[in-house]
Each structure stands twice: as C-alpha cells, then as structure tokens.
Amino acid sequence: MTGTRGSTTPAPAPELVDAGFGYESRGAAALHDGLNHADLAHVLDLLDREIIPRPAAVALLRVVLDASMDAIGYDPRDGEPYNSRERAFAAQIGSAAGWLHAGRPRREATRVAFRLDLRRRAAHLAAAAAGLARALAERAGHHRDTLFADQTYLQHAQPSTVGHYLLSFAYPVIRDGRRLLEVFDWLNASPAGAGSVNGTRLQRDRTTVATRLGFASVIVNTRDAMWQVDGLVQLASTLASLALTQSSLAEDLEIWASPEFDYAELAEEYTRPSVLMPQKRNPYSLAMIRGTTGVLIGHVAGMLAVQKTPSARSDNLIFAYGEMPGALDHALRMTELTTGVVATLTVNEARLREALALGFSQSTDVAEQLMVSCGIDYRTAYRIVGGAVRRLAADGGSAADLTPALIDEIAAEQLGRPLAIDAATLAGAVDPAAIVATRVAAGGAAPEPMDAMLADVAADAGALAAAAGERLDAVDRAEHSLVAEARRVVEEAQG
User: Fold this and answer.
1) What is the maximum alpha-carbon separation in the chain?
2) CB neighbours of 308 closer than 8 A, spacing ≥ 6?
3) What is the separation of C-alpha 33 from the centre of its chain, rounded to a whole number of angstroms?
4) Taking the domains of the chain in order of start, what are their residue ranges?
5) Could you tell me which residues come within 8 angstroms of residue 82 by beta carbon, excluding any fewer than 6 positions away?
6) How confident is the model over 426-436, as a mean pLDDT?
7) Which of 64, 116, 164, 318 could form a disulfide with 34 if both were Cys (CB 3.0 to 4.6 A apart)?
8) For residue 12, which phi and psi values (nearest 5 degrees)?
C-alpha cells in the first residue's frame, strides 16, 4: 500500500529520480515564475488573515522575491519542482518555509503556476496568429488581380486570383486565434484555494488570491479546479489546427517554388543551400513548418492518452506541465516563421499567366454558358465541353482554342444537332479575367467581394491582436502589482 506509509520515507530510488522527478524537473523552467507568483499571493493571503506570523511571512516573501532558477537549482534528487523550492527556502529561513503548506497542497501551487504560464503563452500565440493573418491579407491585397488557375488535386480547377487563394488561409488562422483567446479565458480562472479536492478550513474566500494573480474568476467546484483538463485538450487541438493551416500552405508553396512549377519563389533567407548540389536551394523553412505540424498533432494524441485515467490522478497533468508549454513554444515559432515566409514571398505572375493560358480551367464556365445560352441541362453541357476538351488536348490545344464550330461538332455527335452559340458569348466564357469578374457573390474573387474580404480580414486581425494585447496587459499589471505589494511588506518590515 502506497497511501498509508506517512511522510517519512527513504530517499527515492535512482530510477525514480531519473524517470519521474527528472521528467518533472524538466518542466521547472516553464513553471518557475508562476510558482513564485503563486507563493507570493498565498503568503500575502495568509498574512491578511493573520494565519502566518508576520516575521515568517516577511522571510518567505523575501526569499521568494529573490528566487531564481539558479538559486533553486531544481535538482530532481530533491523531488519534483515544488519540493526543490521548499528545500531551497528551508535552507535559507528554516522552519518558516513550512508555512507555504498552510491550506495548500503542492499540486495546487503547481496548478496555479501552470495556468499562469499557459495563459501568457496562449495570448502571445493569438497575437502571432493575428500577425500571420495580417501578412496574408497584405500579400493577398498585392495580388488581388493576379490571375492563375486554382487547383484541386494538383490539377487546374477554375480561374481565380492569387489574392483569393491567400485569403483562404487567413480565415482559419483568425478562427484559431479566437479559439486561443477562448482557451486563455479558460486558463484565466483560478484553482487557488481548492486544496486537494475540497478546499481548506483556513480560507473562506478564494477570490482574494485569484485577484492578486490577475485571474478573472475562480473555478467553482474545488475538485474540478484541481483536476479539470478539457481546456488543455482544446488548447492542444487548437495548436494542431493552427499548424495544419500553415502546413497546407507550406506544402502548396513547396510545390509552387519547385522549378517544375515555378509559380513562386521563397526569399533566400528562408531557404538553405544544398551542401552537395550547387544548383539547389532547399525550402528549409517549409520543411520546418510541416515537421512542426506533425509534432503538434502528436501532442494532441499524447494529451488525450494521458487523460484516460480514473479521476483525481496526478499523471494526467504531470505530463502536461512540460509538454504544453513546449507545444505552445513550437506553435509560436512556427507561426512567426510562416509570417516571414508569406511577407517575403515572390509570385511569378508571368508563369502563372502562361500556365493558365495552356490549360482548361475555363471548362466549367463554358458548360454553364452553354446551359444558359442554348437551353440544355448542365449534365449535357458538361459532356459536350468534356468531349471538346479531350479533342483539343489530344491536338495540343487549350481552352482558348474552343470555337463555336467545335462545340457544334461535338453537340451534333451527342445531341444530333448544333447549339449555334455566339462567338462573342463563347469568348467571354473562355476569358479568365471575364470569368473572375463574374464572381461577385460574397466570398468570390471579383474585385468588389475581394475588397470586402481584405477589409474584413484586416479588421479581424486587428481586433484579435488588440484582444490578445489587452489580456497580456492585464496579466502584466496583476503580476507587477503582486510583486510590488510583496516588496512593500518586506521593505516596511526592514525599516
């Protein structure tokens, strides 16, 4: 039985140190500042309620204010990060360090620190997502009228514009940025005062500590406060979703930037030369974006796997302490990298025009025009245009070579009669610029809806950045105020 042996135990086995405490201690860097703030708020609250003697409170506040990563050491032989802190404090101020345990288990302090760290990282990533959306909108605006044959399955689909294509990535980036702010709001609720499962007799009001730490609220049910993980699953999923959008763009750009396509060119500072082949510069930045996406997808699976436990188990969060800050760091670096790639991307407009002219991306519009002008159903028009395309492709032609005579020839074979479409009408259905100009409905590639979308994305990116900034400012104010209050108590005691 492991739960009835009391607190006096032999030194942990070296294997436990390596595989257990060593693993937890690797997350100390992410938790350190949050643990400092959690300790400061806890001691000030104990002092307010006259639970801790003032000399002990002053001593504790002083050592916590001075606590650095190096000063603590976080030696896994001391146990988990909380234990390392307690040993370091006790070495300086003796038994006064024991007051940190009053009404608060170690997991509560760590839960608080974890949320303090993640909320800041989530807000920073939301701001970075806003920056990426802004960069996409700026490049899209520059290429609002740059015609090209958009693709599905790497085949010409329909005439569109590069600007319309780029904006298709800005919208999911903004949506994920908003989801990050939702996760921030989940993180911005305080578990302080929850105890192990059912709070403590020493504290009747949990809001004081929450306010000092800048939390917007307390998590209502104390047991839930200690063990809830649903927001972490949402966070991991959002990181993967944000990464997937960037990975899709990166995979497209790797194809576009290849000599075989030559649709676009990465700025040299986002590439890496081959050490063997002098003619090659590899799209290294795109490989990193795609690879990081795989890592973040793995984090989702890992988070879900460790959550599959009975309730009130520590392992599900122990493994999150190091993993989730790392995942957010990966996502931030990747998003900043993608922003740089987009902002410096060069589009080969001449090559795009050439590829568009050599293909058959206008076929859908020709079929629709036959349906409207000649009074036939779409499936019949589809078969006629398909027959004409096959014949032209066999002869090395393109959509520009479609003529009323060829349409009539194919129609006669399939319908037994010509369609007699007007040459000017057919020419309008084949002209890529004229086709794009017809996409006037909301979300289309015509100038008017494009201008509306560009304005919307710019506004949404600005609002997302502002909301992330407001949250970061509030966090900064709370943390500065907390540290200032603790310093005042120490300074007043000293003189």
Assistant:
1) 106
2) none
3) 23
4) 14-102, 120-144+168-202+216-355+450-478, 363-430
5) 35, 106, 109, 110
6) 96
7) 116
8) -65, 150
CB within 8 Å of 474: residues ≥ 6 apart: 214
> What secondary structure does DSSP assign to 421-436, as a single string?
--HHHHHHHH-HHHHH
Distance CA 125, CA 146 (A): 31
Contact indicator for 462, 126 with CB cutoff of 8 Å: no
The owner of tokens 């909320």 is 119
C-alpha span between 267 and 290 (Å, rounded) = 18
CA distances for 164 relative to 150, 358, 454, angstroms: 10, 21, 9
What are the structure tokens assigned to 182, written together? 């939702």
Determine the Cα–Cα distance for residues 433 and 436; give it in Å rounded to an integer.
5
Query: Structure tokens of 250?
Result: 């990166």
Q: The pTM is what? A: 0.94
pLDDT at residue 2 is higher than 90: no
Q: Could you give the 3-state DSSP secondary structure of residue 11?
A: coil
Q: Among 123-132, 303-312, 447-456, which is the least confidently predicted range? A: 303-312
Strand (E) positions, 206-327? 217-218, 264-265, 272-273, 281-282
Tokens of 477: 């104010």
Top CATH class of 120-144+168-202+216-355+450-478 equals mainly alpha
With pLDDT > 70 as the criterion, what percentage of the chain qualifies?
97
Residue with tokens 């990563």: 69
DSSP 8-state class, residue 94: G
Rounded Cα distance between 186 and 250, Å, is 31
CA nearest neighbour of 222 among 200, 244, 238: 200
Q: 332: Cβ–Cβ under 8 A, 6 or more apart, which residues? A: 121, 124, 125, 128
> Residues 400, 361: contact at Cβ < 8 Å?
no
Q: Note the pLDDT tens digit of each residue in 433-480.
A: 999 999 999 999 999 999 999 999 999 999 999 999 999 999 999 999
CA atoms 451, 456, 457, 463: torsion sign: positive
Residue 190 β-bridge partners: 218
What kind and span of H or E run contains 87? helix 81-93
Radius of gyration of the chain (CA): 31
Distance of CA 213 to the CA centre of its chain: 25
State how far the Cα of 351 lies from the Cα of 249, in Å rounded to an integer. 19
Q: Which residue has the higher pLDDT, 276 or 305?
A: 305
Map residue 217 onto helix, strand or coil. strand
pLDDT in tens, 145-193: 999 999 999 999 999 999 999 999 999 999 999 999 999 999 999 999 9
The predicted-structure confidence for 372-422, as pLDDT tens digits, reads as follows 999 999 999 999 999 999 999 999 999 999 999 999 999 999 999 999 999
Q: What angle do CA 432, 433, 439 make, to 5 degrees?
A: 95
CA distance 62 to 43: 11
Question: What is d(CA 201, CA 195) in angstroms, rounded to the nearest whole number?
Answer: 10
Tell me, what's the pLDDT at 199? 83
